[in-house]
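Progress narrative, work stream C.
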Amino acid sequence: MRQYFGTDGIRRIANTELSPALVYKVAKAGAYVLSKHTDHRPTILIGRDTRISGTLIESAMVAGFLSYGANVKLLGVIPTPAVAYLTRKLNADASVVISASHNTYEFNGIKYFSNKGMKISDSLEEEIEEVMDSGKLDDLTAVNDKIGVSEYALDLIDEYVYFFRKQFDDVIENNKKDDFIVGIDTANGATSYVAEKIFKSLGINYKIINNNPDGININENCGSTHLEGLKKFVVENKLSLGVAYDGDGDRCLAVDENGNEIDGDKLMAIIASNLKEKGNLKKDTIVATVMSNLGLNKYAKENGLNLVQTKVGDRYVLEEMLKEGYNIGGEQSGHIILLDYNPTGDGILTSLMLIKTILETNKKASELGNIVKIYPQILINAKVNSEKKYDYEKNEEIKEAIEKLEKEFAGNGRVLIRPSGTEPLVRVMIEGENKEYITKKAEQIAKLIEEKLS
């Protein structure tokens, strides 16, 4: 079991659990693992979000990289997908994003990207951990003229802005309307500066909120995890659409003109349908996780789309897309990968694809948002013996209860059982048309699992 890396890099309380000493080791070991096959001095990019601890973590990372002998370009406050894009654009050897995504400000994290601008694999993370704990770090110390140097490269964010102008300038210009106004919530995070720059450069009318970061207000009652403020803002200002990003800018959720949420499943359906209509949806397929709503599955079947589902985590979505040649995938949370543009989720890109679709189809956001019927989902955690949490499939009573309920649903509901990767829990998720009924059934199955696996 990995000691430091979780499902999305390393994420801990900054300056205690994620201490500068630990960050230094992660940097030095990461620089070695990610560049050991190169025949030149490696260059590594570092971007961060707006957390108060960002420069502290950044300083420790820079020290680790330079000590190994890598050169560093500091990108400053910049969205995660911009770092991924620039890694490929500049042919860097690796990159790091310092962010705890949608978590509150006291957390921070480290996400590594390969030279292809993709999150590194589980196996590479495990290799970094092995180097960290092996006693090899002292042997990886550069001396004399081999020590690395760092430089600020804050202007590189303009390359990211230009990327959007190149992709969307013509289509927005040819279809825009004066009364089409977008509300933008940047979560006081990594998109706080660049989102406005991009929307302004494309000539999209907008009103922006939560774009005044102070180091501790990132994700605080704002952004994609707290849509209430954006819903109110859109309705009160009679806006056409609202879009909300998370702290590091790799997710986007939307709100229609009536203040109704357009979640990641709906966004994928809207964008995929537009791509299909233009002949640009590869293999007519959407890749989602097992947590995606049954409504997306039904929409896909009824509209000639294939839905492929993976285990939870955007890296597994990306793996499936790369393996089979698909070009759209993502999660309910709004982490959507559009592989024709960028190999990671990109909140601003997702929002622009939605805006492009609304303008091209001449439909309201609410019309597009209603194409998928979202079924209620209930999630209950069953507390179990940690050693038995994977045994639910072996227990006949549990299996019978699940099979009986699925038979009863007859395609209008489903049961998903998922052991936690880190806690002594089995997660029971049930979808169906009647929320009260599925809540009762989820409680019954969770209780049965607790009885049999404790």
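Work stream C, second folded protein:
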Amino acid sequence: MNYHVPVLFDAALDGLDLQPAGTYVDCTFGGGGHSRGILDRLGPEGRLFGFDCDPDAVPNVPEDDRFTLIQENFRFATNFLRIQGVQQVDGILADLGVSSHQFDAAERGFSIRGDGALDMRMDPRLPEGADGLIQRMSEQELTTLFRQYGELNQAHRAARALRKAIEQDGAEGIGSTGRLQTVLSPLAPPNKRNQYLAQAFQALRIAVNDELGALSDLLKASLRLLKPGGRLVVISYHSLEDRMVKRFMRAGNLEGEIAKDFHGRSLAPFDKVTGKALVADAEEMERNPRSRSARMRVAARNTQAA
């Protein structure tokens, strides 16, 4: 089984507008699919830096002197690229979310398939997994988490059920993905059990890994990292991410509010390359079901860039 099948492969590489001697960043190296595609289009002088904080990605590193894997979260891209002597780059690619490998590894706790430890950490160095998060959060905090990150209807019912289960289970907590599903399944709407559980798992995963915070940091860093004309390509998988990316590419800030100069001219730092988000075609959706929820947006750092 492949570690991960890259989504929107050709469209992402085309979006980067790859230059043979350019310097690029693959923020989510994973199985290395997009990275290998980038390397195929680079010349001898080109450079590619991959970020991935999951040690399972290390065996996928290509034997290529033009590639460097940085085993850190992409939110720290600016600092770690500076250590490599890189101040600015020609393109940044981020294929967000969870890799196929992480979903398929039951012991990681990402998927509703199978039973494993309730962990969900992309970076095993993080101090707290999903079980610890659930145990320390109040009912109100869990309600907010499920509402904001999972977009669950009646999120308070899920929070209440978890707090009740923790009181019953004592120090052992929820413990496993199987136990979490047992607690939450009775709350799922008829015929929508898997969707309901997937939304709950998504909410916990986002919180454990601070995924929206990391994306926010990356987007802000792109203002400094991208050369004028440099491309920002982001593939997202749920509305929370896509909304952030859309607003940022529109205005250069997370609020989506475009600043203007004295004469009323836009000071937005990006030019849109894609109008609406690009989506996979029917053939790719059939071949790779994960692509069904993918939304890709592309923007270019405009010539106003410092």
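The chain has a mean pLDDT of 92. No further action is required on this item.
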